[in-house]
Write a structure and sequence with these properties.
The structure holds 2 protein chains of 2 kinds. By secondary structure, chain A is α+β, with helices and mostly antiparallel strands. Chain A has a 12-stranded antiparallel β-sheet. An 8-stranded antiparallel β-sheet of chain A has the order 6-2-3-4-17-16-15-10. In chain A, strands 5-1-7-8-9 form a 5-stranded antiparallel β-sheet. In chain A, a hairpin with a 4-residue loop joins strand 24 and strand 25. Chain A is elongated. Chain B has 4 domains: about 60 residues, MutS, DNA mismatch repair protein, domain I, CATH 3.40.1170.60; about 80 residues, 2-Layer Sandwich (Alpha-Beta Plaits); about 60 residues, 5' to 3' exonuclease, C-terminal subdomain (DNA polymerase, domain 1, Orthogonal Bundle); about 130 residues, DNA polymerase, Y-family, little finger domain (Dna Ligase, domain 1, 2-Layer Sandwich). Chain B has 16 helices and 13 strands. In chain B, a hairpin with a 4-residue loop joins strand 10 and strand 11. The longest helix of chain B is centred in the middle third of the chain and has 21 residues. The chains are: A alpha+beta, B alpha+beta. Chains A and B meet through strand 26 of A and strand 11 and strand 13 of B. Strand 26 of chain A pairs antiparallel with strand 13 of chain B, so a sheet runs across the interface.
Chain lengths: ~375, ~400
């Protein structure tokens, strides 16, 4: 196996795939990247047995072949090489040599036979969506997913393909983020799947702003293909909770507030939190919002921001982190906060089909 | 290099705090706990009261019979915690390796502090002086090469004394030899009785008896454990906690190793209520539940489970504890069961949930538990009980077992 490849695209390819590899892998082969050189160029593949990522890099292949090399070490070497063409040759003992300008490296690899098989995108139907739009949908929701391992079905996001709409939902039982997008769905493509958080993070990492993303759901598996990059992942097996029931049908009051000023205020007051159970009090009164934080033994903070509001005065307490999350991931200038009372869920909305339901904290 | 471990034990802590704050009680028998006509128990007794045979965990009525002139003072947890905080802050000045055992005692590993503050006895005196200067309370200290010996020693010259255990192994063996075996950790009434049948009464007897003979009586594991302790060998580290009040727990050792799942569950229920009550009295909520089981063989299991949200009501704690218990096959008679909670969260910051347990339900559970607390505070600990606990108690009486819950005294 022999090829010549430019440094920059090879490094870019390695950075795309190396995240999947866990730092402490049980099987040595899982620390390696599979390299396949053929007439199309060089294919890089990594897997942790749950998530598999593959991408293609242009290369002048003079002798096709395949091998596996430790991906992190390879990436750190390539990163430090001079910015020019690299000659790579791999012998039949899976030893790779890299020649680049005046640098020489040799890396010991493992045979490709040991590498787990790569899942194929051979489902019954494929859904197509803009790659950048899909990435933004994940970004605006995935932070709400649970990290509590005992709540297995919540350790990911729900992708619901129903009636020409893709709905993405994430919740940890305390807050819930939901976003919708119209897509063309073949009748047989109506399905609900739970995408594990690791796959979500990889998608956020590898998806570009533009181009088509092809989504192919299969039994217990889903494949995402965008250009020459592919991600395949196992799905979370389980029933997602009925999220519709926790979205308030109607709230009594609606507040309009500048996203950036609320975000800044929340960030500032949260500087006096003691631990993660601290609550920030938000008092909505006529055209004025007071955000206060009072932590015994630490101190207190108060911020006042202008809002558009003429309803009754409401004071409600939220975990500041949970309030900051949607604010920092949205990009709208103005958002709406809907409320009823201090123990009912608050809802954050904006001028896109997005909503965020947040349960308050009870303070004495 | 030899370690230097201190065991610092406050003298009659609750009672001393009361005597400090109320000069009229000084020099008089003081009983902290339930009132003389209540069915509760004594939490702590001053040294004056102890002369009448009053001790912690004794029913208050019994205490009253023994010493009607004693002052009965209700427990004021907040006041004791404040004093305890000051004392623990003093410990931290001498070493970061502080392992709090309860509100009023701790192990300190001062091995690394000797070049700063002098040897073990010198540090012990400095700590005692600081405690007295800042809280007007006295403490007794044991200075030894390990935890077991330090703990034994702190009890030898109480109140207001320092006992130093020498470093040399032969001196340690001589120091331990005359002590009754009951003074050793892990030797309760049952083991003591078993040992007595083979003529072992002192730690010295234990040092000289044959391992095989001992193993036949109490099991190989326990025999090895006891003989190491009898020679004063104990390698356990002082395990410091960043925050000493990071957990709360209760344990119960069965008078007879227990094989009945119902009984174990009922005792667990009592332990849960005890911890829950303390948690609510402290106005705190906990996020993690711990269960501990010790088999007859002394093998110990611990299990823990995080709750969805921090809570302080008995029902949630009990359900979680019972789930943990149900996962453990009862393959052997149970010697001890323990229940604890950790990861406290201050109240007033309770996160409400979107699904399932709606907030009103949690509120109801908590308010039920608090009502029970009030009833027990007013009418005594056993004034209201779960039916299962009552039934088990009745059965226990028939077995001739008395399994009154142990109460941590001072």
């Amino acid at each position: 196996m022999k090829f010549e490849i430019a440094k920059a695209p090879l490094l870019e390819g390695l950075q795309k795939v190396q995240n999947v590899v866990s730092l402490r892998s049980t099987l040595p082969i899982l620390s390696n990247v599979l390299l396949n050189a053929d007439k199309e160029g060089l294919w890089l593949t990594t897997t942790d047995l749950d998530v598999t990522v593959r991408c293609r890099v242009d290369a002048n292949v003079t002798k096709p072949g395949a091998t596996t090399l430790p991906v992190r070490r390879m990436a750190s070497i390539i990163r430090e090489l001079p910015d020019s063409m690299i000659e790579v040759e791999i012998d039949d003992k899976n030893q790779a040599t890299f020649n680049c300008a005046s640098s020489f490296f040799k890396l010991i690899g493992l045979s490709e036979d040991e590498f787990p098989p790569i899942p194929k995108a051979d489902g019954n139907h494929t859904i197509t969506i803009n790659s950048g739009i899909f990435r933004e949908m994940l970004r605006k929701t995935s932070y709400a997913a649970s990290t509590d391992e005992t709540r297995y079905v919540l350790n990911g996001v729900l992708l619901s393909f129903k009636s020409d709409k893709l709905t993405i939902v994430a919740t940890d039982g305390r807050r819930l983020a939901l976003i919708e997008q119209e897509v063309e769905l073949p009748a047989e493509a109506q399905t609900d799947i739970i995408l594990p958080t690791k796959a979500v993070n990889e998608l956020l990492h590898i998806l570009g702003d533009d181009g088509e993303l092809k989504i192919t759901p299969k039994e217990n598996q889903i494949v995402f293909e965008s250009g020459e990059t592919l991600l395949s992942t196992k799905l979370i097996d389980g029933t997602y909770p009925n999220y519709r029931q926790v979205i308030p049908a109607q709230c009594e009051e609606r507040v309009t507030v500048e996203r950036e000023s609320l975000l800044t205020a929340m960030r500032r007051v949260s500087l006096v939190t003691a631990d993660r159970s601290s609550a920030t009090k938000l008092t909505f009164s006529k055209n004025k919002l007071n955000v206060t934080m009072n932590t015994p033994d630490v101190g207190e903070a108060r911020e006042t921001i202008p809002i558009k509001y003429s309803g009754k005065e409401i004071t409600v307490a939220f975990n500041p982190e949970y309030m900051i999350d949607p604010l920092k991931n949205l990009s709208n200038d103005e958002i709406y906060v809907e409320l009823s009372d201090d123990l009912s869920p608050g809802v954050v909305k904006c001028d896109i089909p997005f909503l965020y339901v947040l349960m308050p904290m009870r303070v004495s | 290099m030899n370690r230097t471990i201190l065991h610092v034990d406050m003298d009659a802590f609750f009672a001393s705090v009361e005597q400090r704050d109320r000069p009229e009680l000084r020099g008089k028998p003081v009983v902290v706990g339930s009132g003389p006509n209540e069915r509760g128990v004594v939490s702590a007794a001053s040294y004056e009261a102890r002369e009448y045979g009053i001790h912690s965990a004794m029913p208050s009525r019994e205490a009253y019979k023994r010493c009607p002139q004693a002052a009965f003072v209700p427990v004021d947890g907040q006041k004791y915690r404040l004093a305890s905080k000051i004392v623990f802050e003093i410990f931290e000045r001498f070493t970061p390796l502080v392992e709090g055992i309860s509100i009023d005692e701790a192990f300190l590993d001062v091995s690394g502090s000797r070049h700063l503050f002098g040897d073990g006895p010198a540090i012990a005196e400095q700590i005692r002086a600081a405690i007295f200067a800042e809280t007007q309370l006295t403490a007794s200290v044991g200075v030894a090469p390990n935890k077991f010996l330090a703990k034994l020693a702190s009890d030898m010259d109480k109140p207001n004394g320092v006992t130093i255990v020498p470093d040399a192994p032969s001196d340690i063996i001589a120091f331990l030899a005359p002590l009754p075996v009951g003074r050793m950790w892990g030797v309760g009434a049952v083991t003591q009785e078993k040992l007595a049948t083979v003529g072992i009464h002192t730690i010295g007897d234990l040092q000289s008896c044959s391992r095989a003979e001992l193993a036949r009586r109490i099991g190989a594991h326990a025999a090895e454990h006891l003989q190491l302790l009898a020679r004063g060998q104990d390698t356990r580290d002082v395990e410091e906690e960043r925050d000493r009040e990071k957990s709360m727990s209760r344990e119960h050792t069965f008078a007879k190793d227990c094989t009945s799942p119902e009984r174990i569950q009922a005792v667990l229920g009592n332990l849960v209520e005890d911890v829950g009550r303390r948690l609510r009295a402290d106005e705190r909520t906990a996020k993690v539940v711990h269960l501990k089981l010790r088999w007859r063989s002394f093998k110990t299991l611990t299990r823990q489970q995080a709750l969805q949200a921090a809570c302080c009501d008995d029902q949630t704690l009990r359900e979680t504890a019972e789930q943990l218990l149900a996962l453990i096959p009862l393959t052997e008679p149970v010697r001890l069961i323990g229940f604890g909670v950790s990861q406290f969260e201050e109240p007033g910051g309770e996160q409400l949930l979107l699904f399932g347990d709606d907030s009103r339900n949690v509120e109801k559970r908590e308010s039920l538990s608090r009502s029970l607390d009030k009833i027990r505070d007013t009418f005594g600990d056993t004034s209201i009980q779960r039916a299962s606990a009552v039934r088990i108690d009745r059965n226990a009486d028939e077995d001739g077992q008395t399994d009154a819950l142990p109460r941590k005294g001072t």
